[in-house]
Write a structure and sequence with these properties.
Blueprint: H1 5-22, H2 25-28, H3 31-35, E1 62-66, E2 69-75, E3 82-96, E4 102-115, H4 120-132, H5 145-148, E5 160-168, E6 172-177, H6 193-228, H7 232-246, H8 249-260, E7 262-263, E8 269-270, H9 273-299, H10 303-310, H11 315-351, H12 360-369, H13 379-404
Antiparallel strand pairs: 1-6, 2-5, 3-4, 3-5, 3-6, 7-8
Helix pairs in contact: 1-6, 1-13, 6-7, 6-9, 6-11, 6-12, 7-9, 8-9, 9-11, 10-11, 11-12, 11-13, 12-13
Length: about 400
């Protein structure tokens, strides 16, 4: 079967989205950040509510690594929110301001990670300098220690070029945080939203893939048996498939998940992934299984099947060699339509806190809980929505090519 341009575009879109599920995690996000996504104290040093780096910003985040180096940058209205140091070394910071003053912070012993805002020694040095400019203890609730280093005498930002000198006994990484950070910015806790998006996407896609595969397997088994045999069990399975196909999936899925799960932290539902996948697969297998049964009923009365049976072929041989031939292409086409629907279903269940682990639904819900939409941080919601749309469009283009080529015939 030749693929036309639409199908090729569809395959490209599907592959781009599925990279979130198949690419090793450490190639997408730093392992340490991924492991600490739900551990909020880890993110204390990171900027809060930062914009993505691809949007205009007043001060872009700067990073540098080395031993005894300097960083020069301009401040124009927006001041850095924090300076973070990572490594294992004794570090001393010297900040040369455009007004000719220099601020010496440290030395401090860094063992892992620290920052001006979180390290008592560095923060005290920043506060002491701020007092010399007239910023007393009453100013501390209004500014972070780092922000005070970039203020002038009159309560305004001291604009101009700054030089940050880093003196260290061994290599360290220094990050000067601005109002932008990462591909998707940060939330109100300072968490890198790209990390959350990848974790949520990986979980959503893998669960959806497992559910979709189970639907195909269950539907094939039940449909083949119900269509090929005419026993009481076959009649019972036919009725079961018809009933499952008529049930409302979402409310019944929520009811069953609630029944088979327990209440976890923050009132979320805790349920094994295998149990969740099986519940959703059973609820979604009805229509597909009934369609498979219809294929089997039509195929088993054809002449070549009767001839094979007359030659002594067994049931398994007939099912494998003659019945499955028109069913498998249909199963693949059904999968292409089913998978994006399951992704949406999993996201909806996650939005209602009905399934465990991070997913795109819980990712969107977290944004609403932090008032990101009202604060204009639209990129938080754009990422998962666009990704799900691209996945749906990709499968739609691929399915359209299959039907036009007569795969379902």
């Amino acid at each position: 079967m030749r693929l036309d341009l639409k199908a090729k575009v569809g395959i490209v879109l599907i592959m781009l989205v599925m990279l979130l599920a198949v690419v090793p995690m450490h190639l997408l996000v730093p392992p340490e950040k991924a492991a600490n996504w739900n551990y909020l104290p880890y993110w204390n040093d990171y900027p809060k509510n930062a914009r993505p780096i691809w949007l205009p910003s007043g001060f872009r985040t700067l990073e540098s690594v080395g031993t005894n180096f300097s960083m020069t940058f301009a401040v124009d209205g927006i001041v850095p929110g924090n300076v973070m140091i990572e490594g294992n070394s004794t570090v001393r910071l010297v900040i040369h301001r455009p007004d000719g003053l220099s601020v010496v912070l440290g030395p401090v012993k860094v063992d892992g990670r620290t920052s001006i805002n979180s390290n008592p020694t560095l923060a005290t040095g920043a506060y002491d300098f701020a007092e010399s400019l007239g910023y007393g203890p009453e100013s501390r609730p209004l500014f972070t220690p780092t922000q005070l280093l970039f203020m002038g005498y009159g309560g305004e930002v001291l604009e101009g070029r700054y030089t940050l000198e880093v003196e260290s006994s061994s290599p360290v990484a220094v990050t000067v945080f601005g109002d932008s950070y990462g591909l998707l910015g940060t939330d109100s806790y300072g968490r890198d939203l790209w990390v959350g998006f990848v974790l949520a996407g990986r979980s959503t896609l893998l669960v959806s893939l497992e559910v979709s595969v189970l639907v195909i397997i269950i539907g094939l088994l039940l449909g083949l048996f119900a269509g090929y045999y005419r026993s009481r069990l076959a009649i019972l399975l036919e009725s079961l498939l018809n009933s499952l196909g008529a049930l409302p999936v979402l409310p019944l899925a929520m009811l069953m998940i609630f029944s088979f799960s327990t209440t976890g932290i923050a009132m979320t539902r805790e349920i094994k992934t295998e149990t969740l996948s099986l519940i959703l697969a059973l609820l979604l297998a009805g229509k597909f299984g009934s369609a498979v049964r219809g294929f089997v009923v039509q195929e088993k009365v054809k002449e070549h099947v009767a001839a094979a049976r007359a030659l002594g072929a067994g049931d398994l041989h007939i099912l494998r060699r003659h019945i499955l031939k028109p069913v498998i292409p249909y199963a693949l086409s059904h999968f292409s339509l089913l998978f994006p629907k399951v992704v949406a279903l999993v996201a909806i269940l996650g939005f209602f806190n009905m399934i465990p682990s991070d997913n795109w639904g819980s990712f969107i819900l977290e944004g609403l809980n932090q008032n990101a939409l009202y604060a204009g941080r639209w990129w938080w919601f754009l990422a998962p929505v666009v990704t799900m749309v691209l996945l749906s469009v990709g499968f739609a283009l691929l399915w359209e090519d299959e039907t036009s080529e007569g795969v379902l015939a």
